[in-house]
Amino acid sequence: MKTLIKNVNVVTANEVIFNSAVFIEDGKICSIGTVDTSAKKVIDGKGGYLIPGFIDMHCHGGIEIDFIDATAEEMQKIASFHLSHGTTTMLATTLTAKESTTENCLKTFAEYKKNNPDGVLYGVHMEGPWFSPKQCGAQDVSNMKTPSKAEIERIKQAYPFVLRVSCAPELDGGMEFGKRAKELGVIASVGHTDADFDTVCLAHENGYELMTHFYSGMKGTERVNLYRVAGAVEAGYYLEDMNVEIIADGRHLPDSLLKLIYKIKGVDKISLITDATRGCGLANGTESFIGPKEDAMPIVIENDVALLKDKSSFAGSTATFDRLYKVMANVIGKDFVSLSKMASLNPARLLGLKDRGEIEVGKRADLIIVNDSLEIQNIFHKGEEVK
Q: Which residue among 151, 259, 293, 302 is the one 20 to 30 A from 329 at the CA level?
């Protein structure tokens, strides 16, 4: 069906085209700025901003469901929930669990993908189990293991939709793991790591191109025998080609650090992520858990973030992507081009998605209309309006 979105300020990868229009047909953007009178459906944007749909590379779940033990139907429920907040493409993210639990999750995702080949869930991000117990956060130490070249080869062959893996590169086999992952077209990301500056630099040379939830689950400068040693955080800043993802929920990182990351890394190397867990969508004061039901760790939702019950660590976020967009707008101002790069274009480029992530003729019509207060007014997934 032909659809015309008129009376909108169109946010492209380079500029905002004010008082414009976008014409959609067969799920793709056909023209920008041209008012086609043959459209069967006309949407009045009411002077809002038309931005690309959000792309979330790191999301565990929401509404009391986690991908790690969800059914295919429940995976669709998670996807629909986040789609209602503007996420049009997502990587279903696992966490450290028993090997059998993770394998079952991947098999279930294969079932989802078979029935939803072009759905919101595009692929899988395996966040672990190849982590350092010293930087475990809310990950299960008892199921952590060392990585190997053979393992990433087996995973990619069995589950080609695994597009990203997070790993502590200092572990035995970590460098070979990252190098082989890159050769196989899998994003290798430094995460839950106790590595120092030099080790992360070496990891970058061996295929690691992203840092998992920057600052969280990694160390900064510390003293070793009185002498300061730079950590993973400093390496993330130093390496110009290293990408970082940030949980811009207003809780994991204060505005001061968000400003620092934005200033030093630059807009083209930052991707926003929710890191949402089952607690996403639940009210403050609600008790829940993180991880699979069989090895659940109790959490509580407090001050709009998930915490382990003993308050020793964050346990993922409760943020939907529209919240990230607002937080970053508060930090950098309403620079819609920069905001949409961090929310859409940068993750699309990392994932090799050439058909989405920006508003351009020929691209998929994954679109959002927001008003001046950044509240979502309309969502379009593959050109179809989401009710």
A: 302
